[in-house]
Amino acid sequence: MRVASLLPSATEMVCALGLESDLVGVSHECDWPPEVLGRAVLTSAKIGHSWSSRDIDRDVRAVLRDALAVYDIDVAKLAEVAPDVIVTQDLCDVCAVSFEDVCQAVTAIARPDTVIVNLHPTRLADVWDDIRKVGAATNRVERADEVVRGLEARLASLARRASAIGSRPNVLTIEWIDPVMIGGTWMPELVQIAGGRALVTQAGDHAPTLTREELAALDPAPDVVLVKPCGFTLDRTLVEVDVLRELLRSMPWRAVRDGRVWLADGNAYFNRPGPRLVESAEILAGCIHPAEFADLAARHAESCVPLGAL
Q1: Fewest CB atoms within 10 Å of the CB: 14, 143, 268, 285?
Q2: Helices and strands (H, E) in the chain, number of each type
Q3: Smallest Cα–Cα separation from 155: which of 190, 187, 128, 183?
């Protein structure tokens, strides 16, 4: 079976099912596991990532306002790799190629028998169902069930450890820096599992944008803040550390006073709805309860740093 994945989380799912050798094409953002590097790249971005988060937000909004696509599909390359299955999504046109463009590309290459697996996760259960959906399309049903059971068991173990601590700090997760967007979808669930109480959003919510005034007025105020911009590695986030400092110095938050603001890799973790959401919960646990989860904080030290240490 020839499988093409048009988003990073789907590539991780395909590989978790043991289908690395069947993966014939990936998106330009697929970077994990390392074995996928060098596969045919089927997409490209019209918006660069070298500017500030404010510039990126402005340009993406302009593209979407004009009803244009943020990403392109290389139709000629897609025809060359001739996939039997294409895994894509219709949750967010900012995150990956649009579902409509994928359907048009399949029509253009005259492969009507190609199966398009469309993912639309907004909660953790949706992510696990998506793994099963990919498994069903690739004849890996039993393997998909096994993968999901393993992921759920790891999260359940983490939740038991967190529930024994007895305190649940208020946690604010920031999904974009300028303007400030708050983590929604599955993030409140990850916060709950890791031993915190999510502020602003509930499970399944889209990421809202808050003004400085709205942030300063949060009640309760956050005890812990995690900044993990969507699509930004930790190194990329550090480029805008001065922007973050300028924002946070005006916030009357305990998290700021106590030095409990963390920066994390939002590209590999948190915003990628695949198997590594389990590692994302572990990173959160180390930020929310660093003493009780010292083992997890040490394990993920390269993916998360306190702002005060910079």
Answers
A1: 143
A2: 13, 14
A3: 190
Q: Which residue has the tokens 């599955």?
A: 186
Residues 138 and 12 in one domain: yes
Beta strands, E only, 134-246: 170-176, 180-182, 197-198, 209-210, 224-227
Query: pLDDT tens-digit profile of 49-65?
Result: 557 888 777 777 776 66
If we measure between CA atoms, which residue out of 195, 163, 276 comes closest to residue 228? 276
What's the domain range around 177? 168-309
Structure tokens at 8: 């990073």
CATH of the domain at 194: 3.40.50.1980
CA separation for the pair 234, 228 (Å, rounded): 8
User: Do residues 10 and 119 share a domain?
Assistant: yes
pLDDT in tens, 152-195: 999 999 999 999 998 999 999 999 999 999 999 999 999 999 99
φ/ψ of residue 10, rounded to 5? -65, -40
Residue type, 143: R
d(CA 275, CA 20): 15
The interaxial angle of helices 277-288 and 141-163, nearest 10 deg, is 10
**Buried b / exposed e along 65-96 (16+ C-beta atoms within 10 A):** eeeeebbebbbeebeebebbbbbbbebbbbbb
- Cβ contacts of 224 within 8 Å, gap of 6 or more: 169, 170, 171, 172, 196, 255, 260, 261, 262, 287, 288
Q: What average pLDDT does range 147-155 have in this prediction?
A: 98
* pLDDT tens string 17-44: 999 999 999 999 999 999 999 999 999 8
- pLDDT, one tens digit per residue, over 206-252 is 999 999 999 999 999 999 999 999 989 999 999 999 999 999 999 99
**CA angle (146, 151, 25) in 5-degree steps:** 75
CA neighbor of 239 nearest in space, from 98, 37, 50, 3: 50
For residue 147, give both structure tokens: 């993968």
Mapped onto helix, strand or coil, the DSSP state of residue 71 is: strand
